[in-house]
Amino acid sequence: MTSIPEPRKVASGASEILHHEGYDEAIRSPFVPAIRTVSNARLVFISGVTGAPVYHDHPHVASVIDAVPADIDGQVQILFDNLDHALRAAGAQRSDVVGLTRFFTNIDEDQDVVNRVQGEWFGGHIPTSTTVQITRLATDPRLRLEIQAVAAVPAD
């Protein structure tokens, strides 16, 4: 019978990483199966961000996207910059992120690049994550990725 690892506190102290039977430290993964928030956490829900400016007109103006790089490398760097802005506005940091929902328009072409950049951006912290491939993003068909996040911030 495999022993189940004890919960491990996430860097912020507002949540714990949970593993279950079958956990193997040797397996490299960009997500963990579960994170439990503790009672002193404030939850922050961050709308989906892309490589486009967070603040843009509705209806969308195609010329705004003209300045966004067409490649996933460029888009994902801007996306994580946008996520940093939202986290800072909420008084949160990267290690407070407990969940991501990632929407790709082409997983086969883009997922390895995004996983690498995401791993570097988090610097060892690993949130829960769900990845979905969709036909297109609502903002503009040239955008390749959108990420929605939830953070658990220690209460003041």
TrEMBL record:
It holds the Pfam family Ribonuc_L-PSP. CDD domains: YjgF_YER057c_UK114_family. InterPro entries: RutC-like_sf, YjgF/YER057c/UK114. PANTHER family: 2-IMINOBUTANOATE/2-IMINOPROPANOATE DEAMINASE RIDA (PTHR11803), RUTC FAMILY PROTEIN YJGH (PTHR11803:SF44). This is RidA family protein.
